[in-house]
Input
Amino acid sequence: MTAPEPEPTPLHDRALQDLSFIRRTMEGAASFTDVPGKGIVALGLIAIAAAGIASRQATPDGWLMVWLVTGIVGGLVGSGTMYHKMRQRIGTGGAFSLSAPARKFFLGYWPALLAGAVLTIALIDPGTPGVEAHVVDRLLPGVWLLLYGVGVTTAGAHSVRAVPLMGIGFILLGATALFCPALDGDLMLALGFGALHIGFGVHIARRHGG
Output
């Protein structure tokens, strides 16, 4: 006894499946364009202000506290402006969800930042009172710039061309800070998180909207 043959899929259902497959394929191949240019400029201005405040701190602990607070503020500003740009693209009536390019972008972005946080904790050694001067003078600025650049470059592979180029700039500054101990750490952080952010932020805002 032979099994009954399955009924053929109706033509309109097959067409809908094909259209859904094509839509998912096109979405996966698209670039993540919701990087907020104006938000990046704001990050740059915050970083320059932080570099000025940090350079006036009398102790390494004070310096570290300034930059940790700056990192939190910058993270909130960056996340908020990116969410605002994504909402603008979707529109008020659409349901918010991460697109395939957005998921790829964040998957490339966060591991390097997590590595930076782990290395920061290891370098400051929370179990030992006080932070050593050479850690804040050279190591932390270099590590932060380098790993942030790695995250931006990796994530930027799924975004507009300016993003990975900005990441490469951070990598170069981070490597320079690590291997040129005579350079001032606050200056390098101001050049990276300040000047690079402002320059590329203006470019992205003009070329890719907001």
About this structure: The longest helix spans residues 60-90.
